[in-house]
Amino acid sequence: MSEGIVGPRRRAPRWILAACSLLLALLLLELVTRIEGPPVCAGTEGFLLAANDEVGWTFTPELTFTFDPCAPLGTRRNWSAPVAINAQGLHDQPWPYEKRPGEVRVLLLGDEVSDGVGVERGDRLSVRIAHLSDRSRGARVAAINAAIPGYGPAEALRFLERRGLRYAPDVVVLLVDREHDLAATLDPPEAQVLAADIPPASGLLGLSGAARWLARRPARTPASAVRIVAPEPITTAADTERARGRLLELIERMARTSHAAGASFAVAIAPRCPVTPSDVDLCSDVERVAPCVDLGPVFAEHERNTAGRNELCIPDQPRWGRDGHFLASHKIWDTLAARQLWPASVVGGDRL
Q1: d(C-alpha 271, C-alpha 101), whole Å
Q2: Percentage of residues of the chain with pLDDT beyond 70
Q3: Does 42 lie in the same domain as 182?
Q4: What residues make up the domain containing 251?
C-alpha cells in the first residue's frame, strides 16, 4: 500500500514567533533585574543598614540592588556593581553555620573600607582570599565577609562573640581602619533610627524585578533603618595615647576569644580611602598581643608605581576598589602563612 504524498509543513504565523521572542526577552529581563537589583544612589540613606538586637546593626538582610554613583558620565570615573546581602545581614553569599567536611573558614571583621560594596563579587577581599588556596591539594578555604559599615573594634568584638563564632572560624582577621577605629574607642559609633528613604515595594513593584529596576526601588527595605554617626576625630596627643591603649585592650580580648574557640587571630591595618600617609604606627603596638600586618606601605607603593592610574579606591567613597582588595588579599594570605596561622591542611595556590 503506497504512502500518501506529504507536502511542506505549514510554518507558524509570524505573530506567534514574535510573541514568543518578546516573552523570552521579558523573562530574561526579569531574571537579570532580579539578580542585579535596581540602581540606587550611593549617597542614599535609610535602606542600606538595619538595626539588629543581637549585634547592633547589619546590612539590611536579603537586600539586592546595584550600587550606583549617580553622577553624569564624564564628571568622574564611572563605576557601579551589584550588591546582594544574605539573610544574616552580610555582604556575602549565604553561609550555613555548620562547616562542610574538611572546610577551613576565615572570618573577616571590619568596617566599610573593606566591605566590598562597589566592586564585583570576584574582586572582593573574601573571595580573593578563598581563591588563593589550592583546593586540589589541600583544604577548601571559605572566607566570610563580616565587614559592616560603621563598625569599630568594640562592635567587631560584639559581633565575634555573639554571632561570628557560630560560623566555627579557623582563622579570624580584624581589619583595623586606623582613622576611624582609634576615634571609635573613645567616641563609639552611634546608630540613629531613620525613616526609610525608599518605601517598601508593593503592587506591581512587589512582583516585578523590572518594575523595581525602573522605579529604583529594592524589593527589601529595613523594618528599622539606621544611620551611623561617625566618631569625633581625635585632636590631642593625650587622646591618641588613650585610644591606642583602649584599642589594644579590645584586640587582646578578640584574640583571647578567638583562641578559646580554637581559631588563630591576626590584625591587618587597613588604609581608608583616599589613601594618605600616616605617621601612626599601630602594628608595633598590636604585635604585643596579636600578629599584625600594615597594608598602608603596600597601597602607597602601588599608588606611586601606577602614578594614580589604578583602582585602589572607589571615587568619593572610603572603600577600596578592586586593586585595593587584590593587594590586601595577597598580603593577608602571605602574613597568615609566614606566621603559621593557617591550619596545616591549607595549601597555597595560584597567585592571581
Answers
A1: 35
A2: 82
A3: no
A4: 96-189+232-352
Summarised one tens digit per residue, pLDDT across range 216-259 is 677 777 888 899 999 999 999 999 999 999 999 999 999 999 99
Q: Determine contact, residues 253/259, Cβ cutoff 8 Å.
A: no
**What secondary structure letter does DSSP report for 133?**
B
Nearest Cα to 334, choosing from 298, 304, 306, 300? 298
Mention every residue, 6+ apart, whose C-beta is less than 8 A from residue 237: none
Q: Are residues 199 and 180 in the same domain?
A: no
Structural domain contains residue 22 = no
Residue type at 53 in one-letter notation: D
Q: How far is CA 205 from CA 26, 38, 198, 217, in A?
A: 15, 11, 12, 8
Q: Closest by alpha carbon to 82, among 61, 65, 59? A: 65
pLDDT of residue 26: 58
Alpha-carbon distance values, 282 to 134, 179, 233 (Å): 32, 11, 17
Pair 78, 105 in one domain? no
45-59, 205-219, 251-265, range with greatest mean pLDDT: 251-265
| pTM beyond 0.90, yes or no | no
CA gap 65, 60 in Å, rounded: 11
Distance (Å) of CA 95 to CA 51, 113, 325, 346: 20, 22, 21, 20
Whether residue 185 contacts residue 243, with contact meaning beta carbons closer than 8 Å, is answered with yes
Residue 100 shares a structural domain with residue 79: no
User: Beta strand 292-294 with 64-68: parallel, antiparallel or unpaired?
Assistant: unpaired
The phi, psi pair for 284, rounded to 5°, reads -60, -35
Mean pLDDT across the chain: 87
Helix, strand, or coil here: 101? coil
**CA 284 to each of CA 129, 271, 287, 288: distance values in angstroms, whole numbers, following the listed order:** 25, 16, 5, 7
Q: How far apart are CA 166 and CA 236, in angstroms?
A: 39
* Mean pLDDT value across residues 78-95: 91
Domain boundary among 204, 229, 254: 229
Express as a percent the part of the chain with pLDDT over 90: 62
d(CA 146, CA 144): 6
Please tell me the distance from the alpha carbon of residue 91 to that of residue 325, in angstroms, as a whole number.
Answer: 15
